[in-house]
Amino acid sequence: MDVLVIGSGAREHALVRALLDDPGVDRVVAAPGNAGIAGVAPCEPVAVEDPGAVTALAARLGADLVVVGPEAPLVAGVADAVRAAGTACFGPSAAAARLEGSKAFAKEVMAAAGVPTAMAHLCTSEAEVADALDAFGAPHVVKDDGLAAGKGVVVTGDREEALAHARRCLEHGPVVVEEFLDGPEVSVFCLTDGEAVLALAPAQDFKRAGDGDTGPNTGGMGAYSPLPWAPADLAQQVVERIAQPVVTEMAKRGTPFGGVLYCGLALTSRGVRVIEFNVRFGDPETQVVLARLATPLGGLLHAAATGALDVQPDLRWREEAAVTVVLAAPGYPEDPQLGGTLHGLDAAGRVDGAAVLHAGTRLAPDGTGIVASGGRVLSVLGTGHDLGEARAAAYEAVGLIDLAGSRFRRDIALEAATA
Ligand code: AMP
Ligand code: GLY
Question: How many angstroms separate the Cα of 382 from the Cα of each of 40, 288, 299, 318, 419?
């Protein structure tokens, strides 16, 4: 099987590595990829949000499967176009990708499917926002209705700050005000072929920029798996109460959802609640989940893309823990400074149990080195027998990397490893 992976982050680097590990996969090509992916697989330039361009590339390469990493191409209809051209594609149609593309749509589907989530009001004016803020009380949760790369949400005790964010969102569309969900957050990826659902191991993401969950929300500063403190049957609960009902509801509407339904959850005292859905793998959680998955990934994604997930044997997992630490460019997330040169990548990659996955990197224009080209630059992965060992490997490796002004969180998986 020849696979084309669309995207350029550390998630795609992890997908490419796992696909290359699958004996059933002959060749993996990434588009556009990044400087790290280029070290293990050919990379092709492509406009990822252009359905025609992706379809033409898949045809030229003779790909048997296209795996779409990020949400924007899915919302733009890339999976529809690839499938229409006769190639298997892992990723939902544009119609089904609305589960991520519109928070209001996701709420409507959840309501119809009886899935537990935060109560919410969709507001189109400042007066409605003010009423909703008062109805729910503090802490306030205000969300941009559309795609915002994890940065469209403000959670605050300050009513003025909540209103100010709502005003900014209202300039281009509706805004969602919702009930605050109290409890630890978990990400569960549910693979689905539109009917059958298979959950991967739960992971936890660290969304805030600073240690101790301080600072602004980001795309994710680190992740770990397994979660020693979570209920043992969490993945099963998520399938039964959340993913399967949503997949069934989407099929009933004539817009079946195939690909991965990323369930962002809060484990509240009243049970599991959905914070958000994404229609793709999460970054950086994918890096730690795939590090633990022993079942060959290519076969699994192909089965999900072709309606064959129900005949998949049970998933196998390595008896290992995984931790990833994101190295971010100076100024991330508000104003990332790009172009700095990375040093120490080779030494970091040689640390026992560590791997350096690239996110925002590219070759320097003069070809002499690797420079930062995105806010999240690297996702440094550590694996080990337990979370303590996995952390030690990840932190030893990230400590060897030098990028002027860069930062990373020091407390990824710390509490779970020492509990
Ligand atoms: P989202 O983009 O919807 O995932 O929101 C980003 C982050 O904001 C989440 O990971 C949570 O940390 C936080 N958040 C979103 N909605 C809520 C909520 N209803 N209650 C508490 N925190 C929330
Ligand atoms: N880890 C957060 C996301 O992928 O949206």
Answer: 19, 8, 25, 14, 19
